[in-house]
Amino acid sequence: MKFRKSDFLSSPDSSIHVDFDFTDLTGERYANTPVKAVPDCHVDGVLHFDGQNRVVSNLHYNGVMIVEDSITGEDLEYDFEADSEKEYSFNPLEDADEADVIVVSRDLIDLTADAVEAIVYEAPMSITRLAREDYPSGKGWTLVSDQDAPEEAEKEDPRWAKLKEFNFEE
Length: 170
Fold this sequence. Notes:
The chain is mostly beta strands. It has helices spanning 5-10, 112-121, and strands spanning 2-4, 15-21, 35-49, 54-68, 75-89, 101-103, 108-110, 137-138, 141-142. 9% of the residues lie in helices and 38% in strands. The strands form three sheets. Strands 2-3-4-5-6 form a five-stranded mixed beta sheet. The model has no long low-confidence stretch (mean pLDDT 87).
């Protein structure tokens, strides 16, 4: 997943087609993220070179990541799909408005960090395979979801009842 400036200069149409598999079974690249591992990920797309010093990548990722079940803590396989577009420069930037352009060193573009970023952005914040009736519960408590309907209508706070007497429309 590394490309040199010379690779772009030698390509006939100043573009390099990308088509490879990206895996990380140990999860070393995903420390402090919800992703524990990526056993299967396919990356395809195109890197376009402007002929001087800029490269624009248009990449598509699809595969399976391992994440932790939010309730049980078990490992779950989660299918994902992501698109990524980045711009690289082989020369230092002169304009401060180009903060989103990545300046590469030693004329080498490494797509590994961008692949990790695209995959982590697709990781779910919380996920579980448990049905609601299987949620944990105990004596006097039960785990609820924000998607559950409230059991009773909220009662009006008596401290605010006096405000109903005032006519704010006037």
